[in-house]
Amino acid sequence: MSAVRTRSAPQDRRQAILDAAVRVFARRGFHACRVSDIADEAGVAYGLVYHYFGSKDSVLDTLFLERWNVMLDMIAEVDATEASAREKLYAIASFIVDSYRHDPDLMKVIIVDVTRAANSFGQTHLARIREAYRRIAAIVEGAQRQGAFKAEIDAEFAAMAFYGAIEQMLTGWIFEMLPADEEHYERAKRLVVETICGGLEISGASHGRRDADRDGD
Amino acid sequence: MSAVRTRSAPQDRRQAILDAAVRVFARRGFHACRVSDIADEAGVAYGLVYHYFGSKDSVLDTLFLERWNVMLDMIAEVDATEASAREKLYAIASFIVDSYRHDPDLMKVIIVDVTRAANSFGQTHLARIREAYRRIAAIVEGAQRQGAFKAEIDAEFAAMAFYGAIEQMLTGWIFEMLPADEEHYERAKRLVVETICGGLEISGASHGRRDADRDGD
DNA sequence: AGGTTTCGATTGACAAGTCAGTCAATCATT
DNA sequence: AATGATTGACTGACTTGTCAATCGAAACCT
């Protein structure tokens, strides 16, 4: 124990408020819950929330930005490796799915409450979200230059389709439309990459034709 | 003209309120706008909104259900045809994209305020949304039985990836992350189907292996 | 060691404002 | 006159953000 007894360290209180916010936001949604709910859940006085955060919005901002920035860093890091585009995309899918596995409430809040309010909040969030698409698109572009991915599919589109597919999986888990267990998490990672890359990669035959009729090679 | 002059037909007023609601919901979001905003936009008195609708939520419910049911019918109709799975999925993508082209405000409201907030409303919406996934999954299953789609990818997962990719395109247009013009709408339809089916269909070679090495068949 | 000052952390009652929903009255049409 | 549509002021409930007061720990002094 470090600074225990009657009062805990300031940063613990701040973190306790953030943790409590994740729980109540996930439970009833950002709009439906009150600042007093956060304070009650964290076991602190109402006013303390305003001591650490400028507003209720600011609490949500902090939750989103802290997590999103970790993801942006992760994407940049992965892209810097020598792995194939497929492996890079698998790493991203893994990261997002594992984020959900590790803290489903936080991911629920980010997907349900932040994305929804992305336009009513400042443009800040929108810019960060867009940045993620851009970095994924950069991976696709790299693969296109190397001839591994079809060049005729716009990289920006592909990135959004990829991210959209992943987000829909999480949505399925969040709203209990899909079974959410360890096995399905792993299957989801593989499915998303297999589905998207199977369509993006230039395979030996069948460039995108509907029928599986083999041509004269 | 039928019942014109000083007072228009009741159903016109009701529709005027719905149309106004779409506009104000799209502009500032469902939660951020007041019932008085709807009434003002529609040019009717505050109380009239409550004459036609039981609550503010009920207005949103109506907007969502009326449109969503049209889509559900459309999917069932398409699935009953003899078209290939790829053509069926293209028809669905077309319908959704065209819905956005025809009434972007309404689609924005449905995606931003309903689809992503489905848990805060009753289970009614969730069930309708799930029904859409189920119908798309049925198309995938049909293709799997016919040997046109890979059997090892869960149909439910595939359906969600497909819908998620489309919804992400709309999100891109809604938040002005993607160029929204006629040409891009058409490209988006093709991209989504090409991306998803390219990965789902059993092509002559490369069953899902990363490398395009041809096996001895 | 004991007393005291300082200052950020913490409290919770309160002011000020918001908004959904109600309802009694009015209007138009038949 | 009867019926249903329409009005908009009003109520009641609820919320955010403020703020003056209090607390606790450490530094500072004697």
Keywords, please?
217 residues, mainly alpha, Tetracycline Repressor, domain 2, 2 domains, 9 helices, 70% helix, disordered C terminus
Distance between the termini of chain A: 70 Å
Q: Segments of chain A where pLDDT lies below 50 for 5+ residues? A: 1-5, 204-217
Number of strands of chain A: 0
CATH architecture of the largest domain in chain A: Orthogonal Bundle
Question: Which sheet architecture does the biggest sheet of chain A show?
Answer: none
- For this structure, the quaternary state is homodimer
Order of helices and strands of chain A: HHHHHHHHH
What percentage of amino acids of chain A are in beta strands?
A: under 5%
The gyration radius over C-alpha positions of chain A equals: 21 Å
What does this structure look like?
The structure is a homodimer of 217-residue chains. Chain A is mainly alpha-helical and 217 residues long. Chain A folds into two domains: 10-54, Orthogonal Bundle (Arc Repressor Mutant, subunit A); 57-200, Tetracycline Repressor, domain 2. Chain A contains nine helices and no strands. Chain A has helices spanning 10-28, 35-42, 46-52, 56-79, 85-102, 104-117, 123-145, 155-174, 182-200. In chain A, α1 packs across α2 (35-42), α2 crosses α3 (46-52) and α5 (85-102) packs across α6 (104-117). In chain A, 39% of the residues are buried. Residues 1-5 and 204-217 of chain A have low confidence and may be disordered. Chains A and B meet through α6, α7, α8 and α9 of A and α7, α8 and α9 of B. The structure holds a DNA duplex (30 and 30 nucleotides).
